[in-house]
Design a protein that fits this description.
Layout: E1 4-6, E2 9-11, H1 14-17, H2 21-39, H3 43-52, H4 73-78, E3 92-97, E4 107-111, H5 112-129, E5 136-139, H6 147-159, E6 162-164, H7 171-180, E7 185-188, H8 190-202, E8 214-218, H9 224-234, E9 237-244, E10 249-255, E11 262-264, E12 269-274, E13 288-294, E14 305-311, E15 313-314, E16 326-327, E17 332-333, E18 338-340, E19 343-345, H10 347-355, E20 360-371, E21 374-383, H11 392-410, E22 415-419, E23 434-436
Parallel strand pairs: 5-6, 5-7, 7-8, 8-9, 20-23, 21-22
Antiparallel strand pairs: 1-2, 3-4, 9-10, 10-11, 11-16, 12-13, 13-14, 14-17, 15-16, 18-19, 20-21
Helix pairs in contact: 5-6, 8-9, 10-11
The structure holds adenosine monophosphate and zinc ion.
């Protein structure tokens, strides 16, 4: 039976969580071979395997994985929507996509078995940190296409907790729910946790005066200092949760009670750390790009997915007894993707939108700030000089048009500042499009 507290520790699936490394490697190889066979049913991998002359039976060791070129977000986009599908559509029960874009987002399809294994991973993560049947779990994450809300929801339901599917935003209502139902566990974006504390203050309430004992924070980069600040404000333990939609969503890597790195579930994902420039594997301890292969997915297996997230494997074992290796909290990205309020944004999306609007210049600058614990994006845009000579009304109309245009595309309403031509810094090489002033 899943989920048992014993004197040896708190494990959802003790056998798997503490499996010795040799057995784990054998399990991985068996699952990898199956995954490659399954992936060959998809248009994309079928072509790729033909191109490189690979057959599933050629994969005799985990190291053979290196023969397969990595898969990128662009590959997924280019084969949108069904190019990676490895089952018939009849088998699918759910789709999700990455946060942020309303355009051709990367889409992931799941069979029932995919949903079941993803759910199980989240139960494992939450059980590990102490969630139990008696808990009241308030999910303050977006539901819908984004994976955060539903992923945690199913995992907690399997543990048997009482779930409050609050969704994102509406701070006063969140606080009301926390109070009225004596919420004990929350799932929240770290920047929103900081912002929510200011709403407690506005209401003349003490953020320490709740029943919350555990928070899951993730979906965006945050520092150890920021975690400590959140823990100090609320008086609960905050556990870092890492995941990405291409690998289901949350439940890829999660902190245990020792909070010393995130256990990455190696029975479900094959982990590589590659040098992002050469794509050569790096040893444990060295920082590089996290590259992941799904090991149990049927609907849409993905092989060697370049997450573009920078981290390292923490050498050594964890005192909790789990044998799955730990990654360090994400240090940054190898591309220019920004994450604001948990939403992924690429500067190119902003550029494209601006270029669609007549009389807007080429130059723009994105500034990210954290004011009163509130994350803000300002887009400074150069517009034709004549706007500054004519009616102010036109300037305001243009400003609003840009702001609304951006909101429809990046799902966040930025503050838009219109500036005169040539007033923004010009760089000689690659334009610096982003200034991130967010501090802890
Ligand atoms: P999405 O596919 O929309 O779920 O976005 C996934 C991306 O969010 C990851 O590739 C990371 O860049 C980022 N992310 C998710 N969780 C964390 C976390 N705990 N710390 C830092 N970045 C995170
Ligand atoms: Zn541990």
């Amino acid at each position: 039976m899943a989920g048992r507290d014993t004197e040896e520790g708190m494990y959802w699936e003790k056998d798997i969580e503490t499996m010795n490394r040799e057995d784990l490697a054998a399990l991985q190889l068996e699952r990898l071979q199956k995954t490659i066979g399954q992936a060959a049913n998809s248009f994309y991998y079928n072509n790729l395997f033909k191109e490189i002359g690979l057959k599933a039976e050629d994969v005799l060791a985990l190291a053979d994985l290196g023969k397969i070129p990595p898969t990128t977000k662009d590959d997924l986009r280019e084969h949108w929507p069904y190019g990676f599908l490895a089952t018939s559509k009849d088998e699918l029960v759910r789709m999700h996509s990455s946060s942020g874009t309303t355009g051709r987002a990367t889409v992931i399809f799941h069979t029932q078995s995919d949903i079941d294994s993803w759910t199980n991973l989240l139960s494992r993560c939450m059980y590990m940190t102490g969630m139990r049947k008696r808990d009241v779990f308030q999910i303050m994450m977006t539901y819908g296409l984004f994976t955060g809300g539903l992923g945690f929801h199913y995992g907690a339901e399997k543990i048997g907790a009482l779930i409050i599917p609050a969704g994102a935003g509406n701070s006063k209502r969140q606080i009301q729910l926390l109070k009225d139902f004596e919420t004990t566990v929350i799932h929240i974006i770290p920047s929103y946790a900081l912002h929510l504390s200011t709403v407690f203050e506005e209401l003349d309430m003490d953020p320490q005066d709740t029943h919350i004992r555990i928070a899951y924070i993730g979906a965006e980069p945050h520092s150890e200092k920021m975690r400590q600040k959140i823990e100090a404000i609320y008086g609960f333990k905050a556990f870092n949760s890492y995941g990405l939609s291409e690998m289901n969503g949350p439940g890829v890597a999660f902190e245990c009670p020792f909070q010393n790195g995130l256990h990455i579930w190696e029975d479900n994902f094959l982990v590589e750390i590659l040098d992002p420039a050469t794509l050569q594997p790096l040893p444990d301890g060295a920082e590089g790009e996290l590259v992941l292969t799904t090991l149990v997915r049927e609907g849409m297996p993905i092989i060697r997915y370049r997450t573009k997230d920078l981290t390292r494997i923490i050498p050594g074992t964890c005192p909790c007894g789990r044998t799955h290796r730990r990654i360090e909290r994400i240090k940054g990205r190898t591309d220019d993707m920004l994450i604001l309020k948990g939403v992924n944004i690429f500067p190119i999306q902003i550029e494209k939108k601006l270029m669609e609007i007549p009389r807007v210049g080429k130059n723009f600058l994105i500034i990210l700030d954290r004011e009163d614990y509130n994350d803000q994006m300002t887009v400074k845009v150069e517009v034709e000089r004549q706007f500054f000579q004519g009616d102010l009304k036109h300037l305001e109309q243009l400003r609003r048009k840009i702001s609304e245009g951006l909101k429809s595309d990046i799902l966040i309403t930025p503050k838009v500042d219109l500036v005169e031509p040539d007033s923004l810094p010009q760089s000689e090489g690659k334009a610096q499009r982003v200034i991130d002033n967010r501090k802890d």
